[in-house]
Amino acid sequence: MLSVNLGPLAVQVSHLLLLASLLVAAGVGHLAGRHRQTGIGNVLIDMVLAGMVAGRIAFVAIWFEQYRQAPWSVLDIRDGGFTLWAGLAAALLMAIWRGRQRAALRKPLMLGLTAGALAWTAMSGMAGTLDTAEKPTLPTVAFKTLAGESTNLAAVAAGKPMVVNLWASWCPPCRREMPVLAAAQQRETAVTFAFANQGEDAATAQRYLSGGALRLANVLLDSSAELGRVVGSTALPTTLFYDAGGRLVDTHLGELSAASLASKLNQLRTRTASLTKE
């Protein structure tokens, strides 16, 4: 499962796991420091902020060429562009710095962070096990092409790595990211791109594509939005990255920027290269 609905909002499961882990860390830290009335909540907030800033700066530096074309998009963190190792390093340095400033924080902080890390590992492991059991390969959902022909993802992929974008014409972030994906489809010929429209008919999808002058191959119609249910995503847009063996390598919920797409494609190429060596 990639997302869950909280009222009208679709929230990523990974974000919920992170929040739960932070709550575990804060709770254990509070218990460990209660005799000295020492909590670690503020430290955890500082760690998250430091990690986000450092992770974003590192990501922008790595993919600067993509951001150069649209400098203001650097500030739009909705594209999910963060470098994990830089964020973790900054968060750890913040924890060390705060611990050095106040000795009473050290034990609660160490115990809290350990508990949070264990909670994250356990919950992520369980979620990963469930995902692997539910969708080990490309989903076997039946689609119609714009021409009315029946097909499925395996037939469209034709043995190549595959990017599957779940979209709808009424979805603003879907419309904003579509030119980025269209350009990538023209450029990345070693990867198959498929665009699975969720819940709309051929006339509606074609009218949007024609109005936006978008030239896309592999536009698929999923009138019952079955693919979203199968992969466990209630959010649009959702983009799935499969290796040549049909295994899910990565996912992205929300709008893709040129930089975040380039990062995901780089991971997909790395995975494809490792499969080739095997």
Structural key phrases:
278 residues; alpha+beta; Glutaredoxin; seven-stranded mixed beta sheet; two-stranded antiparallel ribbon; 9 strands; 15% strand; elongated
What this model shows, in words?
The chain has ten helices and nine strands. It is of the alpha+beta class. α2 runs antiparallel to α4. The longest helix is centred in the middle third of the chain and has 29 residues, at 106-134.
Report the end-to-end length measured between terminal Cα atoms.
29 Å
Helix/strand-derived class? alpha+beta
Tell me, what is the CATH class of the largest domain? Alpha Beta
The figure for the number of domains is 2
Q: Largest beta sheet, briefly?
A: 7 strands, mixed
Fourth-tier CATH superfamily name of the largest domain: Glutaredoxin
Blueprint (SSEs and pairs):
Blueprint (H helix, E strand, L loop, with lengths): L2 E4 L2 E4 H21 L7 H22 L1 H5 L15 H18 L4 H29 L8 E3 L4 E2 L1 H5 L4 E6 L4 H16 L4 E7 L3 H10 L7 E4 L3 H6 L6 E5 L5 E6 L4 H20 L1
Parallel strand pairs: 5-6, 6-7
Antiparallel strand pairs: 1-2, 3-4, 3-7, 5-8, 8-9
Helix pairs in contact: 1-5, 2-4
Give the structure's gist in a few sentences.
This protein has 278 residues and is an alpha+beta fold.
